[in-house]
Amino acid sequence: MPVSRKKTPYFVRPPTAVLTRGFDPRLSVGSARPAVFRSSTYVFSSPEAAERAFAIALGRSRPSDGENVDLIYSRLSHPNAEIVEDQIVPLERGAEEAAVFNSGMAAISTVLLSSCPPGSSFIYTTPVYGGTQHLIHQLLEPLGLRGVPVSATATNELARAVRETPNLKLVFVETPANPTLAMCDLASVVKAARSLSGHAPLVVVDNTFMGPTFQHPLVHGADLVVYSATKYLAGHSDILAGVVIGKDAELVASLRGMRAVLGNILQPDECWILNSRLPTVELRMTRQSKNAQRIAEALAGHPRIKELYYPSLFTDPEQVRIRDAQCDFPGAVFALELDGGKRAAFDFLRRLTIAKNAVSLGGVETLACHPATTTHSEMSNEELAAAGVTDALVRISIGIEDPRDLLTEFRAALDAL
Ligand SMILES: *Cc1c(COP(=O)(O)O)cnc(C)c1O
C-alpha cells in the first residue's frame, strides 16, 4: 500500500505535517508525488488476506495496531483517498480522522442519513446552504426525519431548541451564514448539546466559509466538521469534493461504511488534485482574507453602498463577541447591498471584468453573484427577508489578484451606478 502509516518521530506543525504525512515515496517506486491509482478493484495477497479485509470492512473485526489490511474495491476506499484523508487531518485542529466524498453535498447527506433514523429530529441553523435546504425538504423530511430550523444568530433560542427537541440526534450549524456572514455561537450550541449527557446529539459544523485556516469547530467541542472542499480546500474552481473531519475514529469509520453503500467516495483523480492543493490552503486563504479585508474596508462608506456585510465591519456587540471568540481572520467573502435595487445589482455585475459573475466561492479568482436570483432563489420572501437577502445584494468572493486592481474595478462599477 502506498499509504504511509509511519509517524514523524517528533512533533511537527500543520504546514510541515501536511507535506510529510500519508505518503511514502518508497512505497510508490520513488515518485515524489503520489501516483494516481485508477483501479476499481485490488488483487488480494492471499485468500486469507481477502477474508480478513472483508471482516474488517464489514465491521466484524478491528485491525490490530500496525496491521496492513488489503484494499478491496475502490467504492470502499482506494490509495488516493487514504493519502488525502491522512494529509488533511493536521489542517483541522483537534482532528483525528477524515473521510472524503465526491461533493460537499455528498458529505452533508451522508452525515445526516447515517446519524438520523426515521422518526428522529435534527436542528439546523438558518439561513443554510441552498443544497442543504433542498436535501432537508425534499429527501429527509419525506423520509420521516424532523428538521427544526433555528436562526443561526438566535443564541438562546438555539440552546433552548437543543435542550427541548424530542429524540434529537444531530445539530447542524452553518457559520458564518451565507451571504451575510452572520455568525452562530459554537460554544453555546456545544454546551447545550453536552448538557444532555447520555443522549447528547452530534454537533456538526459546515466550516466551508472559514475553515480550515480561520475557524476551528472541533476545538470548541463540535463532533464533526463538514466541508465543500470544492471551495477553499481545492481552491481553483476546478473540482467538486467534500470532506468530513472528526475526532472520533469510530464515528468517521461509520461514515465511510455509509459512503460505501451510497457510492459517493471521491474518485482517485480528484483525490490527487485535492491532495496537491492542501499545502497551499493556508497561504491562499491568508492572502484572500487580507485582500478582502483591504477591499471591504476601503469600499465601506461608498455613497452607493447601503450596507456592507463583512466580519471586520460588524457593529452588533453579540456578533463581534462571537467573531472574536471563534474566527482568527475575517475571511474572503463579503456582501454589498447597493442603493438602487436589483437594477443596480445587475448593472454592478455587468461592469465587472476582473471579477467573474459566477456562483461558488473560495477559488483563487474573484467571483461575484446576485444571491436573490441565483443561489438563494428558491427561498420564500419571508426566508429571504430573514436572511437579509434583498434584491440589491451582491455577494463577492475575493481571490488572490492584486487587491488594488479589484478595488479600482469595484469603485468604477459603483461610481457608474
Ligand atoms: C458549496 C457549499 C456546499 C455544497 O458543496 P458542493 O461541493 O457544491 O456539493 C455546502 N455548504 C456550503 C456552505 C457551501 O458553500
Question: What do these coordinates show?
Answer:
- This protein has 417 residues and is α/β, with parallel strands linked by helices.
- It has 2 domains: 202 residues, Type I PLP-dependent aspartate aminotransferase-like (Major domain) (Aspartate Aminotransferase, domain 2); 135 residues, Alpha-Beta Complex (Aspartate Aminotransferase, domain 1), CATH 3.90.1150.
- Helices cover 37% and strands 15% of the residues.
- It is built from 14 helices and 14 strands.
- The chain has a 7-stranded mixed beta sheet with strand order 3-9-8-7-6-4-5, sandwiched between helices.
- α5 links the parallel β4 and β5.
- α3 runs parallel beside α9, α4 crosses α8 and α10 packs parallel to α14.
- The longest helix is centred in the last third of the chain and has 19 residues.
- The chain is globular.
- The model has no long low-confidence stretch (mean pLDDT 95).
Q: Can you count the helices?
A: 14
Q: Kindly name the structural category.
A: alpha/beta
The CATH superfamily of the largest domain is known as Type I PLP-dependent aspartate aminotransferase-like (Major domain)
- Lateral strand order in the biggest sheet: 3-9-8-7-6-4-5
CATH class bucket of the largest domain = Alpha Beta
* Count of strand segments: 14
Cα-atom radius of gyration: 22 Å
How many domains, in number, for the residues?
Answer: 2
How far from one another are the termini? 60 Å
Portion of residues in beta strands equals 15-25%
What small molecules are bound in this structure?
pyridoxal-5'-phosphate
Biggest β-sheet, characterized?
7 strands, mixed
Give the CA-based shape.
globular
CATH topology of the largest domain: Aspartate Aminotransferase, domain 2
Helicity, as a percent range: 25-40%
Uncertain regions spanning at least 5 consecutive residues? none
Looking at the overall shape, the CATH architecture of the largest domain is: 3-Layer(aba) Sandwich
The average pLDDT value, as a whole number, equals: 95
* N-to-C order of helices and strands: EHEHHEHEHEHEHEEEHHHEHEHEEHEH
